[in-house]
Amino acid sequence: MKKLFAILMIAAMLLASLTGCSTKAKGAEGEESTKDSDDKIKIGIVQPVEHPSLNQIREYIIIGLEEQGLKDKVEITYNDAQGDQSNINTIVSQFVGDEMDIIVPIATAPAQSAAAATKDIPIVFAAVSYPVDAGLVKDVNITDENITGVSDAIDIKEIFELALTLTPDIKTFGFIYNTGEINSVSSIEEAKKYCDKNGLNYVESTITNSSELLQGAQSLIGKVDAIFTPTDNTVASAMPILSAEAMNANIPVYTGADSLVADGGFATVGVDYKVLGRQVSEMIKRIIDGEKISNIPVETLNEYTKIINISTAKEIGVEISEELIKEFHIIE
Known about the structure:
Elements: H1 2-20, E1 22-26, E2 32-36, E3 41-47, H2 52-67, E4 74-80, H3 85-97, E5 102-105, H4 108-117, E6 123-126, E7 147-151, H5 156-166, E8 172-178, H6 182-197, E9 201-207, H7 213-220, E10 226-229, H8 233-236, H9 239-248, E11 253-255, H10 258-262, E12 267-271, H11 273-288, E13 299-300, E14 304-309, H12 310-316, H13 322-325, E15 329-331
Parallel strand pairs: 3-4, 3-5, 6-7, 7-13, 8-9, 8-10, 10-11, 14-15
Antiparallel strand pairs: 1-2, 12-14
Helix pairs in contact: 2-11, 3-4, 7-9
C-alpha cells in the first residue's frame, strides 16, 4: 500500500511539473487554452489565385511578422486555390481541421469561406474592399465575432479626378470587371455614380474568368476614351492582356492598384500592397499578443499612392509635365 501511494505521489508531481511548463494562448475572444511554450503559432494563409497583387500582400504579411520579431515564433502554411472556389473551401476546411491559431484569407472569397467555416479560430482578412457588403462584419467599427482585417477599398473620386487631370479629353470610360467579385461590383457602382454626377459616359464589359479578358478588352476598343478596372482579381491575373490591347489603341487604363500599373496599366491613386501586407501583420501580432478581436475593428489602408507607368505613357502618347510627375511613384 505504501508503495502504491508513493507511485501516485510521483505521478502527481510529474503532472504538476508538466502543467507548469505550459503557457496560455488566447482564442478568438480571448478564451485561454493550454499551449506548450515551445509551440509555434500556426497561421494559415489562403489566397484565391496567384497574381502580383495578392502575392505581394502575402509576402509583406510574412515580412511584417518577421520585422516584428515573430519569425521563429510562427509557423506559416500557405495555399492558393488556383482560381477555384471549391479549392478555397477545401483549403479553409483543412486549416480548421489542422487547428490553426489564426487564419488569414486574402481577398473576399477566401474571407467569406473562412467566416462560414469557423466561429472559433481568429480570422484576419486582407484586401477585402467592402467587408460589410461581403457579409463578413455588420459594421466596420464593430467586430463582435471572430473576424477582422484590413480593407483595401479604393477612392474612386481620387482615381477619376486623376484620370481627368492626366487625360482631360475623356468623355467616355470603359469599365471592365468580373461580376462575380463583390469588391469589383461595389467599386464599379461607385464609378458609375461619379460619372453620372460629372456628365461622363461609360460602357461596361463584364467577364467571369480571365480567359474572357481579351474579348472583353476588345469590345471596348473604339467605344471609349479610357478604361477603368478596380482591384479585380480576375483582371489582375491576366492584366498584361488588357494592357497590350489598350496600348495598341492608345487608350489609358486607370486601375485600383499599383501592381496593375506595373503590369502595363497607366496610372492610379491606389493601393500599395506592401503597405497593406505590413498593416495586416501588425493586426495579427495584436491577436498573438492576446488582444480580443472585439477590440480590433476593421481598418482601412493607412496610405494610398499616386503611381504612373512612364513606359505606358510613352506608348500611348501622353506627356506629363515635370512639375506634375514629382507627385508620383514612377514605374518604368
